[in-house]
Amino acid sequence: MAGGTNHTFPAACVHKVLSNDYLLMEILLRLPILSLRLFKPVCKQWLSLITSPSFILTRTRIPTIDPPSGLFIRRSSQNFNEYYNYDFVSFDPRIPAKRSILFSFNSNAEIVQSCNGLLLCYTLCLGEYHIYNPLISMFKRLPPLIYDLHYDRNNGIKYMNMAFDPTKSPYYKVVHVGTHGSVYDDELDHFIKIRTYSSETGVWSVWDDLFCYSSFDGFCLGTYWNGAIHWFSYYERFHVIKLDIVNHPVLTKIQFPLPLTNFQGPLVHCDRKLFKSHDSLLLLCKDYDHSRHLNIYEMKNGYSVWSVKYFVNLDDMMRPYPTWRMPTNWRCCDTLSIILGERDEDSFMVIELSGKILQYKFVLETVSELFDSGKPVISINDCFECIASFAHA
Questions:
Q1: What are all long-range contacts of 129-133, with beta carbons under 8 Å and residues at least 24 apart?
Q2: Would you list the domain boundaries of the chain?
Q3: Among candidates 67, 62, 84, 65, which has minimal Cα distance to 75?
Q4: What tens digit of pLDDT does each residue of 156-170 get?
């Protein structure tokens, strides 16, 4: 408003813009993908535009990453037919939660990793890996690995992880680490060989470098951020391991922040978990195992220093909600996600408590129930962020 004048647009002008497919497409292309998903049912014209191949291709070329809209959580069940069923827990009240999410390419697919809109999945019955975009039901089977004489299939570790950042490249990489050596080699468990699959070339590449085996024991739980995969290793208790794979595999270490209390010893920060949100790598940890305080540290792109982002008292968090009792053995692995919002009051973490999925907002200090799964999450490796994306598998 300028000079107190209320600017309005005549209904005829609005209708003229919205009835023009070209103008409407230009408007829709500038919206977050989650909004596009919500706008599909508006009318047939909008649905046709949003789902058209030309629109999806054009939107894919816009380098953005939407914030997570929810979580895929594997259901705990003794029934084999439900073993690969996932529930969708929504962060947005406009999007309903769903039970028994089944993937279009295989009903027995297991999620291995989630990375900026794409899922790395594995089907045990076929022994195949797939890249899958659940928003547009697009999938691609990865070509099988070809092993050499010094790469044993049956012994040692075999881990997969995924690297994808659409703001930097439309192509993704899949990183495979495995024990290097033969079954007759006494040093079988001492070295790791790295292979990478690129969606740009469509083939696996083998790197000549050999890495220490002990650093990779937590690689399968790694978090991709800022061109590198980050994880905790049991053998490196005071560091985050970082594998840079932008050009050439480079392994480095990031030291933990000092504890906020006077606690010292070998078990400092022994309860911990990594997350990434927006442009930050987040470290959730306790100073010591039985602490009732959570420290959330933030690392920016420069890898300069950890800074304290949030400090959470577990008892104070649940005190206004006596029906949701926080157990004394509550651990960081029960935190499923940490999301940094555009505003501090929009930032929250998602926790699992006796089968209930709860959202805790740091600044507002409020707890709300997002979903009741009825049973606890199977493990920390069975919860994956869902990010709306038009990226091609």
A1: 129/160, 129/174, 130/105, 130/106, 130/393, 131/162, 131/172, 131/174, 131/199, 131/393, 132/103, 132/105, 132/393, 133/389, 133/390, 133/391, 133/392, 133/393
A2: 11-60, 70-386
A3: 84
A4: 567 899 999 998 898
What is the rounded distance in angstroms from the CA atom of residue 365 to the CA atom of residue 167?
33
Tokens of 212: 């220490």
Q: Express each pLDDT in 223-236 by its tens digit.
A: 999 999 999 887 87
43-88 tens-digit pLDDT: 788 788 888 888 888 887 788 888 899 999 887 665 655 667 888 9
Categorise residue 314: left if φ over 0, alpha if ψ from -120 to 50, beta otherwise.
alpha
Are β-strands 128-133 and 228-233 bridged in parallel, bridged antiparallel, or unpaired? unpaired
Mean pLDDT (the chain) is 81
φ and ψ of 332, to 5 deg: -60, -30
Q: Tally the residues of the chain.
A: 393
Q: What spatial distance separates the first Cα and last Cα of the chain, rounded to whole Å?
A: 45
For residues 174 and 164, give the distance between their C-alpha atoms in angstroms, rounded to a whole number. 9
**What's the predicted TM-score (pTM) here?**
0.85
Q: Which fold has domain 70-386?
A: Neuraminidase (2.120.10)
* Closest-CA residue to 123 (of 137, 135, 141): 141
How far apart CA 53 and CA 162 sit, in angstroms, is: 26
Q: Which amino acid is at 271?
A: D
Measure the CA–CA gap between 217 and 279, rounded to whole angstroms: 26
User: 48-61 as b/e, with b when 16 or more CB fall inside 10 Å?
Assistant: ebbeeeebbeebee
Which candidate, 234, 236, 242, places its Cα nearest to that of 218?
A: 234
Token pair 């504890």 is found at: 259
